[in-house]
Amino acid sequence: MQPQESGVHYSRWDDSSRDEVSMAAVSSTEESSCRRIFQKLCTGKLGVAMKVLGGIALFWVIFILGYVTGYYVHKCK
């Protein structure tokens, strides 16, 4: 494997007041594991299913927290 180089190069011109900064994209041959997991779970049909299931789970968590909170707030003494 070759060492990765920084993609930012800075050069200053002596005869002018303008500075030049150039950024080059560093290409990697392998995607990171986080990126592969994101691509698998968050796109396509599986991504839609994960978002729907996440929404349903979030709804039930908020519902249960509200129910428990309401029970203790409105409990008769």
UniProtKB/TrEMBL annotation:
It comes from the Eukaryota. Keywords: Membrane, Transmembrane, Transmembrane helix. The keyword Transmembrane applies. GO terms for molecular function: protein homodimerization activity. The chain crosses the membrane at residues 52-73. The keyword Mitochondrion does not apply. GO terms for cellular component: cell surface; plasma membrane. This is Small integral membrane protein 1.
